[in-house]
Automatic annotation (TrEMBL), chain A:
Keyword Mitochondrion carried by entry: yes
Catalytic activity: L-aspartate + 2-oxoglutarate = oxaloacetate + L-glutamate
Oligomer and partners: Homodimer.
Organism the protein comes from: Cyprinus carpio carpio
Pfam name, any one: Aminotran_1_2
Alphabetical UniProt keywords: Aminotransferase, Membrane, Mitochondrion, Pyridoxal phosphate, Transferase, Transmembrane, Transmembrane helix
Any one biological process term the GO annotation gives: L-aspartate catabolic process
The name this protein goes by in its record: Aspartate aminotransferase
GO molecular function: L-aspartate:2-oxoglutarate aminotransferase activity; pyridoxal phosphate binding
Alphabetized PROSITE patterns for the sequence: AA_TRANSFER_CLASS_1 (PS00105)
Transmembrane residue ranges: 6-29
Family: Belongs to the class-I pyridoxal-phosphate-dependent aminotransferase family.
UniProtKB/TrEMBL annotation, chain B:
Organism: Cyprinus carpio carpio
A cellular component annotation (GO) from this entry: mitochondrial matrix
Protein name, entry field: Aspartate aminotransferase
Enzyme kind, highest EC tier: transferase
Top-level taxon of the source organism: Eukaryota
Similarity comment: Belongs to the class-I pyridoxal-phosphate-dependent aminotransferase family.
Amino acid sequence: YNLLELISFLSFFFFFLLACYFLCFRFFLSSWWTEVQMGPPDPILGVTEAFKRDTNSKKMNLGVGAYRDDNGKPYVLSCVRKAEALIASKMLDKEYLPIGGLGDFNKACAELALGPDSEVLKSKRSITVQTISGTGSLRIGANFLSRFHTVARDVYLPKPSWGNHTPIFRDAGMQLKAYRYYDPATCGFDFTGALDDVSKIPEHSVIMLHACAHNPTGVDPRPEQWKELSAVIKKRKLLVFFDMAYQGFASGDIDRDAWAVRYFLEQGHNVLLSQSFAKNMGLYGERVGGFTVVCADAEEAKRVESQLKILIRPIYSNPPMNGARIASTILSTPELRSTWLEEVKGMADRIIKMREMLVTNLKKEGSTHNWQHVIDQIGMFCFTGLKPEQVERLTKEFSVYMTKDGRISVAGVTSGNVGYLAHAIHQVTK
Amino acid sequence: SSWWTEVQMGPPDPILGVTEAFKRDTNSKKMNLGVGAYRDDNGKPYVLSCVRKAEALIASKMLDKEYLPIGGLGDFNKACAELALGPDSEVLKSKRSITVQTISGTGSLRIGANFLSRFHTVARDVYLPKPSWGNHTPIFRDAGMQLKAYRYYDPATCGFDFTGALDDVSKIPEHSVIMLHACAHNPTGVDPRPEQWKELSAVIKKRKLLVFFDMAYQGFASGDIDRDAWAVRYFLEQGHNVLLSQSFAKNMGLYGERVGGFTVVCADAEEAKRVESQLKILIRPIYSNPPMNGARIASTILSTPELRSTWLEEVKGMADRIIKMREMLVTNLKKEGSTHNWQHVIDQIGMFCFTGLKPEQVERLTKEFSVYMTKDGRISVAGVTSGNVGYLAHAIHQVTK
């Protein structure tokens, strides 16, 4: 009897072990990603998702930074449509672009930023590669720094900066630090704080500067302030990385918006520069951008170019052709280029007008707060100065959606809804 | 003012370097058998008519250019996964996979490599077949993985070293990543037969390896999209939860538009959601969201019945021309009087052919005949036409007789 019991027990035990083995085997074979956590949703895009779910007819999406016309609709520039028709008529092939992208685009892209009389371009001492819009450009730059700027690991961002800057540099292996920039007391530029911080940055560190239309605050240094910053940065021997995502889109004038970049080059800073055509040409989803390294001379530029290609090839081999063809066509066809300049000025002017209307309407609502910063700030975004609790009320009570830091995309404001927006803001701030 | 004094001039990319040397050559009989882009029988780039039709359709819709989601165009992702896994796929029915749009095949592999580097912490090694596409190595290395190899190509037979592969694979440490070319192996053109795939699957399962399929030539290899995807689908049926990279550069001729997909097959739909969220967190600081144009074209073709059948005919046409050129090359070599065994040229499949030529012979071909190929003796059969196959056979015979 005991033997029988023992045998049964052992049999069951054996089969139990066998079952466990197969379960574990099957389980392990089929589940590689058990430890992968659900990640938090992207904060900026998360706003749009919440907006889409809202059923209030008065809802406003002041989250993601894409331009809208005065009817709240996406706007494809007519110069873009014309360029597309031109390109289609040529029946071009779809062969791979070179690793560094479309040559004509790179040339036009660099010229747009640096200006046609640029000494840098005449000396051929810069290299520009086509990138996957601004993000792709920044990431190539970050990877390049990580691999070749071995004297320093730190990248100094303004406080605050675009949210995506941080993971871009971090994932590339750099360390993030910050310098004072935005002054919440004035909703303006903390010039003394910035100079103070920048003057203490360790030599050879990388400093990121927003060329124009600072994202998210809309607060830009004035020319005299840029000059002082340039001097301190030169003294500290810092490596300057310009992020220019809004050339033309900020003031409506492409040369004025590129002034800081060009001034720094004249002052002898050999900068890194990221450009995007997402906003100023409305080419968002086509992913058009450029990354430029200004070097000591043409020979150095050749060496840097070869290493950029070695870096790019194992990321995506070569960049997408369509958007670059459009941008290149616009920039180098005189008629299309002037149409573009008018259209980008049109977008900038509408934004400026909405800023003015918002302040006018806030005053009409009876608000006694100082809203001057809404007019002083520039570009797509406005740091309203609203606190998180106020932002939450705006969303819950009025279906007005913005990011928690109180940033609104002015592009989402129209003459049709600016009154409602002013009313809502007044309600949560009075 | 000089930040980049220590930056060395890098070596030129070997594959693209061939094209650059070719361009400089003034010989009228010159042949570029280097880079792998399809050419028609006149040696010209070929834009598929289904692509032109899709473009016209898209243009007529006057769509906007708003950002795609981080994971890309939803319709594209769906069609892309269905193309690879098949419409009856249990994986798709269970919604236990996630497919994101990527910057063609390279972008897909790199996203996969980055994902492995971040989340496959149990093992750092990626095993590539020997040889593999040159770019695989820096893709995984730059992402932080370690590269190893398993025997694959047998230079003695110019075919598959099946015993060597099984032997090596059976010794790979558990949980390592193994890269498999789904069809039309690059650079050799040597593919395992179905029975061989089955044995490989069993050994891989036994070793508990994480399978990463690179499928850059679905439809382009045999001319049949289901036949070319057979290995991927078989492995899924056998319970391997694979990673999969797809490219539409060759099979739709969308090279410069950069259209591809990356798929992770998970245990269940919940895991797929978690993986998706982490893929987006990984992608956002690389390029934010993918380019729209090519994905719209591919999606339109795959989901418009008329365009889809045109596409299937055209991709079969490309595959058939390649197969024909292989046959003509061997016929012409025999006519030249070559006594070598060139059967492998016909047995190999896809864009590339590992001729078996040695570096010295390749150099003679380039210098004496202006025939350009990569040093490993790999030719792009797509660069061969009925007009130049005779010259090629003559040149090869001269350097091998």
